[in-house]
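To the wet lab folks,

You asked to see what we're planning to order before we commit. Fair enough. Below is the target structure as tokens, and below that is the sequence we designed to fit it. If anything looks off to you, flag it before the synthesis order goes out.
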């Protein structure tokens, strides 16, 4: 089996990939994540997922390298990680009662054969109406300041939602495992 490499420093992606029970290593790609002029959000996340995987190919010449990137759109605008409590509260107030769309790009790059597989997995979250007290209780409990949208759907953040819509809930966390399993099988790796 070719060695697997996750091109990410994200603990969330690392935890998701570990669920597959396959051995893998992690390395942080050093790439410029700035959007190109006129680049759509989906084009940006797909380009970044591929760039992350390709950036490590010279150092890992016989690997299957997994790159992923995610963008959150609210009212057609990208939303980033809040970083602090006040920004997270503002994001959640903006999300209250809204439907938001995540696009998560996945790339599997075979650094030996140069075969590239890419896909974008959409996922929508419908927030229930949130008052300031609920937002404060949630943020104090979970402190999701390193998460786009200011929530952790795999934790208490699920209580903020009215509904979820999409094919793979793992894509909401940052790594679409169903699509990744299909890509791995196309490279001859059986999961399970």
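Sequence we intend to order:
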């Amino acid at each position: 089996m070719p060695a697997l490499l996750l091109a990410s420093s994200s603990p969330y992606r690392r935890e998701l990939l570990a669920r597959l029970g396959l051995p893998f290593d992690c390395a942080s790609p050093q790439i410029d994540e700035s959007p190109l002029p006129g680049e759509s959000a989906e084009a940006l996340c797909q380009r970044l997922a591929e760039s992350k995987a390709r950036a490590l190919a010279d150092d890992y010449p016989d690997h299957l390298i997994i790159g992923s990137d995610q963008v959150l759109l609210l009212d057609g605008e990208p939303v980033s990680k809040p970083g602090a409590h006040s920004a997270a509260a503002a994001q959640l107030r903006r999300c209250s009662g809204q439907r938001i769309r995540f696009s998560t790009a996945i790339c599997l790059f075979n650094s030996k054969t140069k075969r590239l597989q890419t896909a974008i997995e959409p996922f929508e979250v419908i927030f229930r109406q949130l008052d300031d007290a609920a937002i404060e209780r949630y943020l104090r409990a979970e402190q999701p300041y390193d998460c786009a949208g200011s929530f952790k759907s795999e934790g208490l953040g699920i209580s903020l939602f009215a509904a979820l819509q999409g094919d793979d809930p793992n894509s909401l966390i940052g790594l679409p495992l169903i699509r990744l399993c299909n890509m791995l099988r196309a490279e001859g790796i059986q999961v399970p």
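Structural context that might help your review: The chain is about 30% helix and 30% strand. The helical segments are 11-18, 41-55, 85-95, 132-142, 169-173, 177-186.

Thanks,
Computational group
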